[in-house]
Write a structure and sequence with these properties.
Residues 180-239 form the TonB C-terminal domain. Keywords: Membrane, Transmembrane, Transmembrane helix. The chain crosses the membrane at residues 16-34. This protein is an alpha+beta fold. The protein has five helices and five strands.
Length: 242
């Protein structure tokens, strides 16, 4: 017995069309699945603020204080009684003499007034002076630098001989090195003036001034050929033993 075939029931006749439609559907579903987005749920709480209740304040009723009116001003004082006194005293008038001279008056000639020039004491530091002050015994030194070194040496030796180093022990100063800074000036006549001392004790300062005041008279320093005041400073250093 042979089976009967119906041409309309042939499934493979439209297979390519079904495949294309199915493929398009699958691609569409896949695209939608990939691009699908989800969002977290946010709870929104809407609060309402009523300002009417807070702004309404009850103002307490206070007692009104009635200020009394100020007292009336005092009555004006009675005017003073002015007595009229007759002027019986005679007043002598002052006669002002004229300072103008007459044509016939002699004019006294005034001699020329000479103005005396006051020379100022010019001070030139020891380090820059052209001709340093010369200490006795340094006259034979040649050159300004040699005379400066000679003066330093002579002043130091003079202080070493005259200064009382035992004074520190008598004043009760602790042992150690003591330093006194002394400044003085050699004036235009070569005398020692304006002695100033700074040290650890007033007694040492007084002793330093005494010794510097005994320095001999020097030849004054010169600047541009004129005698000038030359300031000088030197430290006095000595050791206090135990």
């Amino acid at each position: 017995m042979e089976p009967k075939k119906n041409l309309k029931s042939d499934v493979s006749r439209n297979s390519s069309l079904f495949f294309a439609v199915g493929l398009a559907l699958m691609m569409g579903i896949t695209y939608l699945a990939i691009n699908y987005k989800t969002y977290d749920k946010v709870d929104v709480i809407a609060d309402s603020l009523n300002l009417d209740d807070e702004l309404d304040e009850e103002v307490p009723i206070t007692e009104q204080i009635v200020t009394p009116p100020p007292p009336p001003p005092p009555p004006p004082a009675a005017p003073e009684i002015i007595e009229v006194v007759e002027d019986e005293e005679e007043v002598e008038e002052t006669v002002i003499e004229s300072t103008e001279t007459e044509m016939e008056a002699e004019i006294v000639e005034v001699e020329e007034v000479e103005v005396a020039e006051v020379e100022e004491d010019l001070e030139v530091p020891f380090s820059v002076i052209e001709n340093v002050a010369v200490f006795p015994g340094c006259e034979k030194e040649k050159g300004n630098a040699a005379k400066k070194d000679c003066m330093n040496d002579k002043v130091n030796k003079f202080i070493g001989k005259k200064f009382n180093t035992d004074l520190a022990g008598d004043l009760g100063l602790p042992p150690g090195k003591k330093r006194i800074f002394v400044q003085f000036k050699v004036d235009k006549s070569g005398n020692i003036t304006s002695i100033v001392a700074r040290g650890p004790h007033p007694g040492l300062e007084k002793e330093a001034k005494r010794v510097i005041g005994q320095l001999p008279k020097m030849q004054p320093g010169k600047q541009r050929g004129k005698a000038v005041v030359m300031p000088f400073s030197i430290p006095i250093v000595f050791q206090v033993q135990d």
